[in-house]
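Technical note accompanying the year-one report. For the benefit of new consortium partners, we illustrate the data format agreed upon in the data management plan: each record pairs a sequence with a structure-token string. No post-processing was applied to the example shown here.
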Amino acid sequence: MAEFLDGWKRTDMCGTLGEKDAGREVVLMGWADGRRDFGSLIFVDLRDRTGIVQVVFDISLIGAEPFKKAESIRSEYVLAIKGKVRKRSEDTINDKIATGRVEVVASDLKILAEAETPPFEISDDAPAGEAVRLKYRYLDLRRPSVQRKLMVRNEVCRVARSYLAENGFLEIETPFLGKSTPEGARDYLVPSRINKGCFYALPQSPQLYKQILMISGFDRYYQITKCFRDEDLRANRQPEFTQIDVEMSFVEEEDVMGMMEGLIQRIFKEVKGIELKRPLKRLTYQEAMDRYGSDKPDTRFGLELVDISDIVKDCGFQVFTNAVKSGGSVRLINAKGFYDKLSRRDIDALTDFVKAYKAKGLAWIAFSRDEGIKSAITKFLSDDVQKRIYERAGAEDGDILFFCADKDEVVYSSLGALRLHLGSEYGLYDKEIYDVLWVTDFPLLEYSEEEKRYVAKHHPFTSPKNEDLPLLDTDPPKVRAKAYDMVINGQEVGGGSMRIHKRDVQRKMFKVLEMSEETIQNNFGFFINAFRYGAPPHGGLAFGLDRLTMLLTGAESIRDVIAFPKVQTANDLMTEAPSRVEEKQLKELAIKLDV
């Protein structure tokens, strides 16, 4: 039967006890992680968020009634225990746990709550499917590995707040209920009961608000805030996610990037004990695409893309020549030493792999040490063309060259994905290494085939580079942005830019995006009006807290570092949200369902 504390006060956490505490009287509280019964002796592993300690119930010391209660203990019972810490004998030391050199000899016991048998074992070693674990998330959160990840998340937030406060940033909250500005991902909408037929939108980011704060004269702002995007999910996406959001006034790109390098350096040092060297490596967007096929490159290993368009543009092989003539390119990656690793079936599987990235196929040339060159395409290429290709690729015996010929975006995405696949599958990099770098000079715009117009690659308030401003009128696709992303191990963990602070430039940007005056006023009227009263040069960056924590903890998914995540269908399996609501609630909101 469950008991009350009756004035008992916890003196220590389980995982903090050590030889220094020998002889001390302590009161511990936590969950029974396991129980071993040896007749007159019962051993219980008591667990809290700091770790486990062994508790000994000795009938000769504790007495019959408390010992009888100890006999009833089962896994996950909630316990309060009084006892004395003592050193274990040399032959009973357990080096697998931090408290393994001591144990607590119980003098009294309270069973605060009983527990049914859990649907899965509360252990890092016990297998359990993600769906079951998320349905019983309150049990999954008891597992030490999950708790450690959330503690790392807490440390990242603590370090960020400390660093930003030291550097003069103010923590200012911005609203969750705001105006829908449909330029980017899909908004989550919240109906208003008071203003029927009207909706708030949950923020995709605090972008406009933090720029307003700069116009308001706060100079340096930050907050650790929730953001919401109604988009298709994958391993590193959630409908709600958290940003470390930062904005600075009277600065240029180097100021923001330098400040953020300092922040990430501090986080790595205090959370991981790793000293990052500054300045961080930098790649321009175009260099990243040309070398790695990605604007978030993983540079821990080679397999870099090689452009051979100039060599093959007139080679006579139609697949190659047509790609170049139509404005695309022909590129390859040299999988060095892979001849002995890949069978013909493996190569065929790689061909199917790149088709998922819209590639029509994957040409290849293999160099056998014993059998010479193997390929289905060499018969279409002259000896001179082949020689020039091999020289540029650095081809040697044992290598395999993989070719893709198409539009640049298809070539980049296909070969970029292929190099990542090969790097992961064949262990081409050390998973313990952190590869941290900047990608800069992004295109300001990208063309949307769906909307048949240019859209902002980041957002409509990103500043063009000063030298590219004239191109907004004459050649918009060539305009580069004052934008920068921080990338860690092939994952974008932070992105930002300098913002447009001149009214005429912002108007020109809206014009290029083909926004009507009505759209501008409806979506951004309050923001544009603020510019009439003087906006300072300003810029910022937002780190994805979930993704950063995922990388720091080695988790496979951001779901592992969020206390209550949603699955790919955007459902919360524990609470069963989203769910239907009562008809009365819909009537109050003047909403009628058509489903």
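Partners are asked to follow this layout when depositing records. The two ends are 49 Å apart (CA to CA).
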